[in-house]
Amino acid sequence: MAVLSSRYEDMSLHVLPESCIANVLSFTCPRDACRLSMVCSLFKSAEESDVVWERFLPLDYQSIISKSDASSMLLASASSKKHLYLMLCEKPLIIEGGKKSFSLDKKSGKRCYMLSARDLMIVWGDTPPYWRWNSDPSSRFGEVAELISVCWLEIRGKINATMLSPATLYTAYLVFRPTGGVYGLDYHPVEVRVGLVGSESGKRNVYLDSESGCKQQYHFVRRHTRFFNRDRIVGMPASEPARESDGHYPKKRGDGWLEIELGDFFCKEGEDGELEMSVQETLEEVEYDGLQRCSSSSSGGITIIGLRHGSQVIHCSSTQQPKLVAGSLDFSEAE
């Protein structure tokens, strides 16, 4: 046993060529490669290799970058493949004439997309009394859409499933913010859906008003006071307080905008077809002259920046088996 132990003590990773270690690291994921780089200086040097980060970049990354007006500048400023990878993670690349942005999830390298407001189908979007197109310095895109007032709110966005990372669960979000004086959206939910065009997918209701989560924690009842027989409005705690973390209410992003979750989509290996995300107003049943009719309410006071698609990864794996991954109109990998 002593002789065997001595032999193992004499063995060292330093006898392996750096290129061999770099090749092994390329079969992990970006997060694990960075962790392993702290083992020793040899691993650190191997982790910096272009061999590693070329594998972490999408196979068609050059084609994607070529769709940007800033492609030449980006490639010229990248000192290495790792530097290029980090730039694509930290600053979304505007592509397709400003209609979309592309980025990578830093931990997994999965593709993330955002569709600009101009890339969406917005009902009455080109009608000035209803929608106004503005520039906004806080937006990555040249234009944002401001909702002035409409009696029917409907927004749709599409992206080809082949543009997404395979074997990945994506979550789609609508990115927006109130412009002051939001109305018609406080207690009135909208219906959202995510799925392939022509397929059956689940629908659910969400609220676009960021204060709805607080407002829904109370219901109001009318009571009479003893003096002067006047009515008094009393706020009573609701039986089941709403939770802002359940995905039915907007959350604030780091850039100051809000986002509301629309739904999930698992992109299978070889998935084809168009993925569609939709946000539309729900109809309310009202009684008029004894008849039940459907009615919509006017709404306004929000600015749309776009749709985000994000992916979620539960486990990093080079094989990307569906059981190991889970998945932003921002398309990004779910976390």
UniProtKB/TrEMBL annotation:
Coiled coil: none annotated. CDD domains: F-box_AtSKIP3-like. It holds the Pfam family F-box. Gene3D superfamilies: 1.20.1280.50. It comes from the Eukaryota. InterPro entries: F-box-like_dom_sf (IPR036047), F-box_dom (IPR001810), PP2-like (IPR025886). Residues 10-56 form the F-box domain. This is F-box domain-containing protein. It comes from Salix udensis. The lineage of its organism: Eukaryota, Viridiplantae, Streptophyta, Embryophyta, Tracheophyta.
